Amino acid sequence: MSNFNREPAHTTSRPRLRRKEVPAYLQDRHGIDIAYATLEKLATIGGGPAMQYAGRIPLYHRDDLDLWAEARLSKPVRSTSERGL
């Protein structure tokens, strides 16, 4: 089956995404680049977005992805000195 005519995951109406769909969703929706391998690692050690399982398949709810992405972003700043690490 070809991927050329498939609709991107973020434009479907499914509330939960498979892990392989999450990087594209986060990049398109929030501008956050994250590798699939990083999501796998975070699922093991913690610190990643919340997930649920359907059998052995991890699923990520869009709301949880949005909350996780917003928590990773700083508040808006006008200069680097405002960043306040």
Short summary of the structure?
With 85 residues, the protein is α+β, with helices and mostly antiparallel strands.
Give a structural overview.
There is one protein chain. By secondary structure, the protein is α+β, with helices and mostly antiparallel strands. It has one domain. Helices cover 35% and strands 13% of the residues. It is built from three helices and three strands, in the order βααββα. Strands 1-3-2 form a three-stranded antiparallel sheet. α1 packs across α3. The longest helix is centred in the last third of the chain and has 11 residues. The N and C termini lie far apart (47 Å). The N terminus is likely disordered.
Anisotropy-based shape: elongated
The pLDDT mean sits at 88
Strand order of the largest sheet: 1-3-2
Largest sheet: 3 strands, antiparallel
Give the helices and strands as they follow along the chain: EHHEEH
The parts where pLDDT drops under 50 for at least 5 residues are: 1-7
Intertermini distance: 47 Å
Strand content: 5-15%
Radius of gyration: 15 Å
How many structural domains does the protein architecture include? 1
Protein name: DNA-binding protein
Biased composition (Polar residues): 1-12
Organism: Phyllobacterium phragmitis
Region (Disordered): 1-21
